[in-house]
Design a protein that fits this description.
- This protein has 112 residues and is mainly β.
- It has 2 domains: 1-69, no CATH class; 70-112, no CATH class.
- Helices cover 4% and strands 37% of the residues.
- It contains 1 helix and 11 strands, in the order ββββαβββββββ.
- It has one helix at residues 33-37, and strands at residues 2-7, 13-19, 23-24, 29-30, 39-42, 58-60, 65-67, 76-78, 83-85, 97-100, 105-108.
- The protein is elongated.
Length: 112
């Protein structure tokens, strides 16, 4: 099975559907399912268009990639992964943190 992202006029993903693979086994020929479904193919493992498409993601035609919405204004797009990077790396001390945009840093989540 293949997955296809249906896009609106601004290349925003509005729906992700399951469809057929490009090769039609019954007829033994290649089928352009992207044109048939009116969207772009996506894959769970990121082999196609960098990231698995989700509703609200943008399809970037220049990068040929699905890019998730920017989570915070201070985060920057990683050109290699087409994912958003925080300006400060997530701490690797085993604690749970959440992002606080007002201080542009990770803040420890209190544990009880």
């Amino acid at each position: 099975m293949a997955h296809y992202a249906i896009l609106d006029e601004n290349n925003i993903v509005t729906q992700v559907i399951v469809g057929k693979n490009e090769y039609d086994m019954l007829n033994g020929m290649l089928v352009d399912w992207e044109s048939y479904y009116g969207g772009k193919r996506t894959s769970y493992n990121g082999n196609i268009r960098k990231n698995y498409a989700g509703i609200g993601y943008t399809y970037d035609t220049t990068r040929d990639a699905f890019i998730p919405p920017q989570p915070y204004p201070s985060w920057t797009l990683n050109e290699s992964t087409c994912l958003w990077d925080a300006p400060v790396a997530y701490p690797a001390d085993g604690q749970l943190y959440k992002w606080d945009e007002s201080v542009t840093n990770w803040v420890a989540v209190p544990t009880e």
